[in-house]
Structure formats: C-alpha cells, structure tokens
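Below is how a single chain appears once it has passed through the pipeline. First comes the sequence as given, then the structure the pipeline wrote out for it. We keep one example in the README because the format questions we get most often are answered faster by looking than by reading.
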Amino acid sequence: MIRINMQRFLIIGAIVIVVLGLGVGAYFFFFTGTAQVEVTPGGGATLPVSGQGAPVTSTAGSVGTSPTSGSSGSPVSVSTRLVKISAGPVVPGEVAIDRAGSASSSPEVAINYVDRRSGNIYAYLMRAKTLTRISNRTIPGIQSAEWLPDGTAAFVRYLSGTNFSTINTYSLPATGSGGFFLPQDLADISVSGTNILTLSAGVNGSTASLVRTDGTRPVTVFSTPLSSLRVDFMGKGQYLATTKPSATLPGNAYLVDGTGRLSRIAGPHNGLVTLASHTGKWLLVSYTLGSAMQMELVNTATGETVSLPVASIADKCVWAADDSVIYCGIPVNPQSGSLYPDDWYQGAVQFSDRIWKIQVSGRYAQLVLDFSKETKGSLDAESLAVNAANTVLVFTNKNDGSLWSYSL
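Resulting structure:
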C-alpha cells in the first residue's frame, strides 16, 4: 500500500512538473529573446475589464502620484536629470511622445507605460512632473508592449489558456476604451507608423504580412522556407528578417525588398541580434565570438561593416530619431563563460550597465549615465526609448522592473 501511494505521488509530481515546464517553456520561447508573437482567443473571448473610473492625477508641480489601485509607487527625482518614474514592475516597452507647449510654456514630453500588476496605463509628464493613470482597464499578466509612435495604443501580449500555451496580443488604446485582437498564432510583430508587420510561422516556413494599425487590410509582403524569425521594418518598402538568436547556433540577417526577395546582410554569427535604424540605412548587429560580446554597424547599401568601440546586446540599445546616434546599456564586467544572449534573456545572468551614446558618423562612444554613481544601485537596461527631439531617454531596469527617465 505504501509503495502504491508512493507511485501515485511520483506520477502526480511528474505531471505537475511537466505542466509547469510547458508554461515556462512557452514564456521563454515567445517572450524572451524573441520578437513579439500574437494570438487571438476564439469566439467572443474578451479581456478582463475593471470598472471605468476617472483618471487619477497627481498634484501639479510635485513629483508624485495619488494612491491608485495598481500604482507602482510615486516618481522620485534622483538628480536634476534622472527620475525614477515607477518602482515597478512595469511592462517592458514604453513610448516617449513630444507634445507642443502653449505660448507661455515649453514643449512637454509624455512617457506612456503599462503597469505589469494591473495592466493600467500611466502617463508621466517630464516638465510638469505629474503622473496620471489614463486607463484603469485591468489586464493582468502582460509580458510586453509595443506602442504606436504617437502613444495612442499599445499592442500588449500575455499568456493564457491550458498550460499557458496561448499567447494573446491585443491592441489596447491608451484610454483603455475599445481595442481588438490580432490574428491567432502569429510568430512576430513590429509596429511602425500606420502599419504593423506580422509574421506567421509553421513547418513549411514563414509568411510576413502588412496590416493597418486598426487590424484591417492585411497584405502578404514575403514568404520564406525559413522559420524561427524576427521581423522588422527596414526603411521605406523594405523589411528585415533575422533568425532568432541562439548562443550555440549561427544566425543570419536578411534584407527583404519590395518583391519579397531575401538578401543576407549579416551573419552567420552565433547569438546574432539586430536593430534596424529608422531610415534603414544602418543595421546595428551584436553577436558572440567565443563567450565575448561583439557589436558592429552594417551599411545596408554598401555592405560595409564597422566594428564599434563598445559591446552589448542590440536589444539593449535604441536609435535616435534621426539615426545619428545609438544609446546602449553597456555591461561593465559581463560574466565570462556565460551564453549570450540566451542567459540574459532567461534571467540567468544580470548585468551592471552604464548608458553610452555611440556617434554613427565618427564611430566613437561617449558615456551618458553612470547609473551606479547616481543611485548607488545596479542597472540592467532594457526597452530603451528616446523622444523625437532627442532630449529624453527612457529605460527599464531589468533587475527590478523599475522605469526611469534621463534628460539628455
């Protein structure tokens, strides 16, 4: 009898481990180190919604916010240039929007972000130093957000379904009202202007399509027998397809023209990660050589490759709006022997970063922010964003999910 009960216990324990493993595996496959994936629940499924109350705004002129459900702490001015907007955790992915000022005031920069615990959307005004909850629609468990450039909506992603095997992507307006699901089982998504680039993948390869930001007018732009891709816009009429990064496998990046033809522009490199400039003239490339991180620029017109004086993972960087500079979180002393970028995506390795500015024309790097000296804490920068005027840098600290802004 004891032996039978022990066998039942072991079987039940094994089932629990398998179920948890499937959930964790789905999370890392879709959300960690890979580009965005969307899925739509069938039928009339809807997102959980809380009561629609009035936004809560902090007292003008002070750095702080009134207590609200789902609020993740009051903003704190660490220095004249550095502000801790939220103690977090926030959803990776935010947007910095330039707003015209009145005749008697300077232009304003609004930073929109999603609180991870509640799914509420907040807006922080840099000049006014006010934090406002602009949506109290409850969407728990959001893992990432892709914002439209004007901040009017975010494409949020979260796991659901049996064993958390379904990945939902929902277009959530900043007001919290309305919205829609994207098609089911997409492998990637990239947002630019009035269009969304989506990727569906299967055993026979991948197909990329363009769809309007309201979810209408899908048009196929290219198909390839390659699978496990990340896609992005690459200037006007061109696209970027990069194999999903792996420290143990060589990856390649391909430029896709208007006819759907793929031309390799980077690789093969282990741990390959890419970040396209806004115009598509440049491609920032990171990869590993042995266990050391490397980073370089590729001129997409000429194929010229230029090594950079600092190294990081391209997902820890952002291009300025005019493509003149790149801001990156650069690890101070990355651990030797680790598998990059895999270990970083999966949280097995944490970095202690400084923020550097890389000048594209001269290929030189300039220190922008030594976070540890400003805060006495450690920064592992991700989800960097910069406003169009290139005056404000926003980033998330992967170590604790906090959100920060820095006046450039």
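The first strand starts at residue 76 and ends at 77.

See the next section for the split statistics.
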